[in-house]
Amino acid sequence: MSRLVHPRGEASSSRDEAGSVVSTATGARTFEVPRETRGPTKLQRPRNFQKIEITPRGDMHFNYVHFAPDLQRKTGSILGTTLRREYPGLVEEYAGPNRPPRKRLVSSWGQYYGEADQNGLTAAERVKEEFWSFFTAEEELLDELDQNIDNYCQNRVPKILCQARVDAVKKFYGSAIKGKNPSSIELEYEEYKTCKLDWISDEAWDVMCKWWTSKKYKELRKRGQDARFANEEYAQQRGGSLPFPTIQQNLEYRFGPEKAGGLDTYKVQMGGFKASLKGSGKPPNRKVQKMIDDYTQAMHKEHGENWRQSDDLDGNVIYQTFGGVKHGRFAMGNGSFKKSDVLAVAKHKKARSSGSSFQAMQRQNEELQQEVAELRERDEERELMLQEQQETISRQQIFLKQQQGLMTVMCQKIGISVPPEILASWEQQQTRSSASHSPDDRDQEDMEDE
User: Fold this and answer.
1) What's 48's DSSP letter?
2) Pairing between β-strand 90-93 and β-strand 61-64 as defined by DSSP bridges
3) 46 φ, ψ to 5°?
4) How far apart are CA 287 and CA 195, in angstroms?
5) Where are the alpha helices (DSSP H) in 183-277?
6) Are strands 21-26 and 13-15 parallel, antiparallel or unpaired?
7) Sheet harboring 13-15: ordered strands across?
8) In order along the chain (450 residues), what is the average pLDDT of each group of 10 residues?
């Protein structure tokens, strides 16, 4: 079968002889990546590099067809680095008639589908360009992989912006930060200003610094900390940045499939991957151990003697055992199986059940309310992303019309007609802007068709 080669090539990036990215076009500016240093926006491409074949896993993860622990590049590192390098910074919003547009800090993946560069590519498309320059896949998996990339980036962008503050604190203290928790340290506005990260523009960094020192941000941060640490035995992941599927493939490569079951992978993820390999992983706390025990009991009840600990996690059992998908996340193995498939099975089971007692009806009603809330939350996220993209397209069209009007007036003043090639360029830009569709637009249309 044919392998996937991303159709756009690499028109938006320039590389040195070794294949490393040395500059990339971002709207009207070109961001230069230093050749002599490495950092969060630097990607090195080894000589004789061969693309790594991947397959989709769940809603937002990937499996490697030929896995090895020393893979030159992993999907998460490529996407994380490129998301930083292509970060749009500030976007302009329509502020009303006869008012200048206001600027807003980019805070979601949907806003990467904004202004296109001179090659007609948005920041989101350039992120995917870079991704497919490192990876390849069977052609029939393209649509599913593309959706997984969108889901992964939608989840990753807020985390990158949250980590930016922590990185600024580390940069401010330097080596003196050793032994301290940088996420618990707050700086003043002027202190943040001296620690600008290289992947954020000066203007965007100033907005970030003001936000981090605002009263509203500190209140929201305090509320989140209180909720997270209210229970000392909360199920904290210690597996580092490795996603669940990659930990599982690591275990299978090192110890064989019998030691790489879903439950074993979850234990390693919660105890710390590297520490677990050395035999020094932390034992599960009470909450994690209770989740393991509850899942084991539920699997024995569901599958009887046929269940083995080496089997993959069962998303349907996790859904039933831990009360659905709280805050859009599964309690175990989140993102490693399809949420839509699990919800479809749960809905089918509820349709088949025919309890007539008041308690059964009450339980079904609670489950239905939870499912409706989850679907509503997902729809709101999609609607917000779609609205952001539509607003961006509208701003582009307004700007294009303004430029066209200015050019027409100038030509009239000097007594010439607008050159045909410029008229053709306007028409192409207008057609491209009107026909712009992000993956989420297509999802919305599919939902309406259903």
Assistant:
1) T
2) unpaired
3) -60, 155
4) 38
5) 189-193, 202-212, 215-228, 244-255, 262-271, 273-277
6) antiparallel
7) 13-15, 21-26, 29-32
8) 44 45 41 42 65 92 90 89 94 83 91 90 95 94 94 93 94 91 92 95 95 93 77 52 85 89 86 74 77 88 80 86 80 81 73 56 77 81 80 76 78 78 73 56 45
Q: Are 243 and 80 in contact (CB under 8 A)?
A: no
3-class DSSP state for residue 90?
Answer: strand
Structure tokens at 152: 């992964």
* Nearest-angstrom CA–CA distance, 128 and 6: 9
Do 89 and 106 form a contact (C-beta atoms < 8 A)?
yes
Cβ 267 vs Cβ 242: under 8 Å: no
Residue 419 neighbours by CB under 8 Å, 6+ apart: none
Strands 102-105, 135-136: pairing is: unpaired
Q: By the 8 A CB rule, do 7 and 142 touch?
A: no
State in Å, rounded, how far the first CA of the chain is from the last one: 31
Q: Classify residue 134 by burial, with Cβ atoms within 10 Å: 0-12, 13-18, 19+.
A: buried
For the record, the structure tokens of 327 come out as 């805050």
Q: What is the pLDDT of residue 241?
A: 66
Please state, in angstroms and rounded to a whole number, the distance separating the CA atoms of residues 130 and 53.
15
What tokens appear for 97 in the block? 């008639």
- β partners of residue 15: 21
Segment holding 135, helix H or strand E: strand 135-136
DSSP 109: G
Bridge partners of 24, per DSSP, are: 13, 31
- Identify the burial level of 389 via C-beta atoms within 10 angstroms of its C-beta, where 0-12 means exposed, 13-18 middle and 19 or more buried: buried
Beta bridge partners of 329: 326
Q: How far apart, in whole angstroms, are the C-alpha atoms of residue 222 and residue 388?
A: 28
Instruction: Please list, residue by residue across 151-180, b when 16 or more beta carbons sit within 10 angstroms of its beta carbon and e when fewer do.
Output: bbbbbbbeebbebbbeebbbebbeeeeeee
pLDDT of residue 353: 54
Quote the distance between the C-alpha of residue 99 and its chain's center: 34
Which pLDDT value is given to residue 24?
A: 42
* Neighbour tally for 397: CB within 10 Å: 14
**How does 224-244 read in b/e, with b if 16+ C-beta sit within 10 Å?**
eeeeeeeeeeebeeebeebbb
426 touches 404 (CB < 8 A): yes
Task: Copy the structure tokens of residue 329.
Answer: 């996340």
Instruction: Of 307, 15, 224, 276, give the one whose Cα is nearest residue 134.
Output: 15
Tokens of 221: 């941060």
Edge to edge, the sheet with strand 135-136 lists 61-64, 52-57, 135-136
Nearest-5° angle of CA 387, CA 390, CA 393? 150
